């Protein structure tokens, strides 16, 4: 079924085996324009920009996912199921739940805990914690090491809500699930990888802290989170 309702590509092979996937489509544009050689725009439906180019000679794609599980649920499923994409590496921003991680630190998700009904609605998956591909994580760790970039490994929280009436709710989630930080997509991405037999992983950069209330600007979030981008690209290479 190509093109799909949300991706206008009508041929297989235009999108690479590995897709680097930030939430923000402008971050996808930034990665394509600053890191890929000869990037070609393949999708602009709903301004969800997707590009294919090469990195150190290897074909690679980068595409935005939008915010939240319904959005990444659509894009990652279409990429895995209809465009034969094998690997999706999310590169996102997150809010720290603990002082152990600081602004700009890079986190490699070892598991995503969520209260979301996405996985159960999608495929009857009842677990509230889903795992990324162990193989992709190993390669991402090796890539980070080769680039001399420190990463923190641990569980993350994939939340359906950005704003909570009780802003201290995170303390309970941190305590019960040992989640280092919060973002809004990985649980659905990992569920779709499981359902389609493909591979997914997630690197996050700490954009703000629920503990200290420090925060980066939206400009910084779009452009300065380059360490996780370099790790993901190096892994694909
Ligand atoms: O920076 P991205 O990848 O969009 O990730 C985080 O930022 C958004 C919220 O501001 C959510 O999508 C969350 O997961
Ligand atoms: O989902 C997110 C992303 C960044 N910061 C947060 O507090 N939540």
UniProtKB/TrEMBL annotation:
<dbReference type="Pfam" id="PF01048">
    <property type="entry name" value="PNP_UDP_1"/>
</dbReference>
<dbReference type="InterPro" id="IPR004402">
    <property type="entry name" value="DeoD-type"/>
</dbReference>
<dbReference type="GO" id="GO:0005829">
    <property type="term" value="C:cytosol"/>
</dbReference>
<dbReference type="GO" id="GO:0004850">
    <property type="term" value="F:uridine phosphorylase activity"/>
</dbReference>
<feature type="domain" description="Nucleoside phosphorylase">
    <location>
        <begin position="19"/>
        <end position="227"/>
    </location>
</feature>
<keyword id="KW-0328">Glycosyltransferase</keyword>
<comment type="similarity">
    <text>Belongs to the PNP/UDP phosphorylase family.</text>
</comment>
<dbReference type="GO" id="GO:0006152">
    <property type="term" value="P:purine nucleoside catabolic process"/>
</dbReference>
<dbReference type="InterPro" id="IPR035994">
    <property type="entry name" value="Nucleoside_phosphorylase_sf"/>
</dbReference>
<dbReference type="InterPro" id="IPR018016">
    <property type="entry name" value="Nucleoside_phosphorylase_CS"/>
</dbReference>
<protein>
    <recommendedName>
        <fullName>Uridine phosphorylase</fullName>
        <ecNumber>2.4.2.3</ecNumber>
    </recommendedName>
</protein>
<dbReference type="InterPro" id="IPR000845">
    <property type="entry name" value="Nucleoside_phosphorylase_d"/>
</dbReference>
<dbReference type="GO" id="GO:0004731">
    <property type="term" value="F:purine-nucleoside phosphorylase activity"/>
</dbReference>
<keyword id="KW-0808">Transferase</keyword>
